[in-house]
């Protein structure tokens, strides 16, 4: 049975969080002499002399109806890498507990655990990049604090089967985090509507991919009110800058632009997939529900070096589980994809002539 208080690291239950000046008075009008700010303005043309809203309420109020959740079920972080780190710090006791990951998967789950001296158990995905549910359930014990599911998965690009994820969420009493960084590229697949049903479910999303705001660094964490309250206690007080909050409000007025970009990327993805499949030295293009294509080549190391020599940078995933000879390719503009394809054709011709 899931009991949140049993999962939280004990010392955090009693933690008194930092109380910022903006926690004590959140009104907009007044003479503000409480936060040791500079009253004169800024050294830039635009003024940033006041601390930002520590909880980004204006952004959350715009985001809540778009995501179909309550503002109290959201935490915004400096990229989704911030909530990944916060979740480990909230639940896993260094040297005692562990997290469970399903390789091949996004690298920061393991790195965040390593930083906190929390060990990492691994249960590989199946060769078609789905969950080995029985093996995951068998690996869980009382020290398993977080299971990370990445759907669509990085680097394979595919969605994990919903019924498998539900078996993990229902079959364990630890936190199950579903990282949906690429969910906008996969229609109607989000687990967000299940948030009220499963108190151990956490969903991560990001503004870095479909929204095109990787440089702004904003990730979203959705969970029960109790979990969000806990994460708010341990996050740094002003983790999202005022300029970022302002630009997010602007982005949220242009959901249509994001949707249009998703459509264009879907078209480009299919075009790139077909053209990659036509190459003689491509063995397999894995099915994808995201903006990345995992491609198995005959000799990925040679392809990777050739592309690098031509200043075309893709991600070498050949050393990770089930990904021998695989390169991960982000879908670009059609022009960028054509530069890649031209270079791959040249390489294939060289192979034939050698
Ligand atoms: C699955 C997954 N989760 C999270 C992230 C991190 O995203 P952010 O830019 O929000 O930190 C990435 C980045 O590539 C990712 O692939």
Summarize the structure.
This protein has helices at 4-7, 10-13, 21-24, 57-67, 81-91, 108-115, 133-139, 162-171, 225-234, 242-252, 255-277, 300-309, 334-353; strands at 74-77, 98-101, 119-122, 144-150, 175-179, 201-206, 219-222, 282-285, 292-297, 315-316, 326-330. With 354 residues, the protein is an alpha/beta fold. Bound molecules: pyridoxal-5'-phosphate.
Query: How far from one another are the termini?
Result: 63 Å
Q: Quick one: overall form?
A: globular
The major beta sheet can be summarized as:
7 strands, mixed
Strand order of the largest sheet: 1-7-6-5-4-2-3
What is the number of beta strands?
Answer: 11
State the share of residues found in helices, binned by percent: 25-40%
**Which cofactor or ligand species appear?**
pyridoxal-5'-phosphate
Low-confidence stretches at least 5 residues in length (pLDDT < 50)?
Answer: none
**Topology as a string of helices (H) and strands (E):** HHHHEHEHEHEHEEEHHHEEHEEH
The overall average pLDDT, rounded, is 96
Structural class: alpha/beta
Total helical segments:
13
Overall radius of gyration: 22 Å
Beta fraction:
5-15%
Describe this structure in words.
With 354 residues, the protein is an alpha/beta fold. Helices cover 38% and strands 14% of the residues. The protein contains 13 helices and 11 strands. The protein has helices at residues 4-7, 10-13, 21-24, 57-67, 81-91, 108-115, 133-139, 162-171, 225-234, 242-252, 255-277, 300-309, 334-353, and strands spanning 74-77, 98-101, 119-122, 144-150, 175-179, 201-206, 219-222, 282-285, 292-297, 315-316, 326-330. Strands 1-7-6-5-4-2-3 form a 7-stranded mixed β-sheet, sandwiched between helices. It has a 4-stranded antiparallel β-sheet with strand order 8-9-11-10, with helices on one face. Helix 11 (255-277) packs parallel to helix 13. It is globular. The mean pLDDT is 96.
């Amino acid at each position: 049975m899931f009991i949140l208080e049993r999962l939280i690291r004990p010392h955090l239950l009693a933690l008194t969080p930092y109380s910022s000046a903006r926690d004590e008075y959140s009104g907009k009008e007044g003479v503000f002499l409480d936060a040791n700010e500079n009253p004169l303005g800024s050294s830039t043309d635009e003024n940033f002399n006041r601390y930002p809203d520590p909880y980004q309420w204006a952004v959350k109020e715009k985001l809540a109806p778009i995501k179909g959740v309550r503002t109290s079920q959201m935490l915004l972080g400096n990229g989704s890498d911030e909530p990944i780190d916060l979740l480990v710090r909230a639940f896993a006791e260094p040297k005692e507990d562990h997290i469970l990951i399903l390789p091949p998967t996004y690298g920061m789950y393991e790195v965040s655990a390593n930083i906190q001296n929390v060990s990492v158990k691994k249960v590989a995905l199946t060769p078609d990049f789905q969950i080995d549910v029985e093996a995951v359930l068998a690996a869980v014990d009382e020290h398993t604090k977080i299971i990370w599911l990445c759907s669509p998965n990085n680097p394979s690009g595919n969605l994990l089967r919903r019924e498998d994820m539900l078996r993990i969420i229902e079959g364990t009493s630890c936190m199950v985090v579903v990282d949906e960084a690429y969910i906008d590229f996969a229609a109607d697949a989000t687990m967000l509507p299940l948030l009220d049903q499963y108190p151990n479910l956490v969903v991560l999303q990001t503004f870095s991919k479909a929204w095109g705001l990787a440089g702004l660094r904003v990730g979203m964490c959705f969970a029960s009110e109790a979990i969000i309250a806990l994460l708010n206690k341990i996050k740094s007080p002003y983790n999202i800058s005022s300029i970022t909050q302002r630009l997010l409000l602007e982005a949220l007025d242009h959901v249509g632009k994001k949707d249009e970009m998703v459509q264009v990327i879907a078209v480009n993805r299919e075009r790139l997939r077909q053209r990659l499949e036509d190459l003689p030295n491509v063995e397999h293009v894995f099915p994808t529900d995201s903006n990345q294509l995992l491609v198995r080549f005959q000799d990925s190391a040679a392809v990777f070096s050739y592309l690098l020599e031509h200043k075309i940078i893709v991600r070498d995933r050949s050393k990770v589980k089930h990904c021998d000879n695989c390169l991960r390719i982000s879908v670009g503009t059609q022009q960028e994809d054509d530069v890649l394809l031209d270079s791959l054709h040249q390489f294939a011709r060289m192979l034939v002539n050698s």
